Known about the structure:
Layout (H helix, E strand, L loop, with lengths): L2 H9 L2 H5 L7 E10 L2 E11 L4 E5 L6 H8 L7 E6 L2 E2 L4 H9 L1 E4 L11 H13 L3 H14 L15 H13 L5 E5 L7 H16 L3 E5 L3 H7 L2 E6 L2 E6 L1 H6 L4 H11 L2
Parallel strand pairs: 3-8, 3-9, 6-7, 7-8
Antiparallel strand pairs: 1-2, 1-4, 4-5, 9-10
The structure holds adenosine-5'-diphosphate and magnesium ion.
Pfam families: ABC_tran
GO cellular component, one term: plasma membrane
Keywords: Amino-acid transport, ATP-binding, Cell membrane, Hydrolase, Membrane, Nucleotide-binding, Transport
Amino acid sequence: xxxxxxxxxxxxxxxxxxxxxxxxxxxxxxxxxxxxxxxxxxxxxxxxxxxxxxxxxxxxxxxxxxxxxxxxxxxxxxxxxxxxxxxxxxxxxxxxxxxxxxxxxxxxxxxxxxxxxxxxxxxxxxxxxxxxxxxxxxxxxxxxxxxxxxxxxxxxxxxxxxxxxxxxxxxxxxxxxxxxxxxxxxxxxxxxxxxxxxxxxxxxxxxxxxxxxxxxxxxxxxxxxxxxxxxxxxxxxxxxxxxxxxxxxxxxxxxxxxxxxxxxxx
Length: 266
Ligand SMILES: Nc1ncnc2c1ncn2[C@@H]1O[C@H](COP(=O)(O)OP(=O)(O)O)[C@@H](O)[C@H]1O
Ligand SMILES: [Mg+2]
């Protein structure tokens, strides 16, 4: 498949048409966040509809990770509101646990449990939180591991797998919670170059299947191929937002032009 045909396939997915701008799956509304005196998120407004793939790019320190971490409430916000499927994120308690399970997150470092098998890494949370039987959890986990191409590794320990394989396990582990939306925070940044594509391919497949995704990445090929929308952040603010074509071909701000010049020169 050529890049453009993949792109067309991804973007024409039926689920995309099902999304309504006034009925967003993730809504970030007037969100501010401070770390002490540092204003890291400045009046952030974002809506992500069902089936949409939003790519967030921007220089280091611009608040991309903090934004992701606020969306599944790993960080509290100082003002504004974040809604997941219409429900405001609760501050704590059972409701937070339930809502957090609806938001899967994949980090740069895979954070698998080192002393548990690949299979156990994937089944642990569903058994505890979704309270499904071991048989059911194992069955679902094996299907997910097959989907990301590492089912033959199920009995091994994380250290016996390559970085790319471990990151694919981390994706399967998130999917095992049946999230409504998946957040990816620079999922390929810690990988050796030859392993980047195997992880991006899994993410492109997920997008094609209609998963709602927010992806922080510097992989511009992925952004062009799979994103419905690109957001450019700098210094805690959203400076640009548009389709990949609008953003890459008609970059508006000097800040974004400068940033793109630097990363595309590599
Ligand atoms: N826990 C924290 N305490 C204090 N400052 C933080 C913390 N986490 C991030 N920061 C600061 O907030 C800013 C945004 O960081 P981050 O969200 O990680 O940016 P990005 O992911 O875009 O590189 C940076 O200046 C960073 O140093
Ligand atoms: Mg970051």
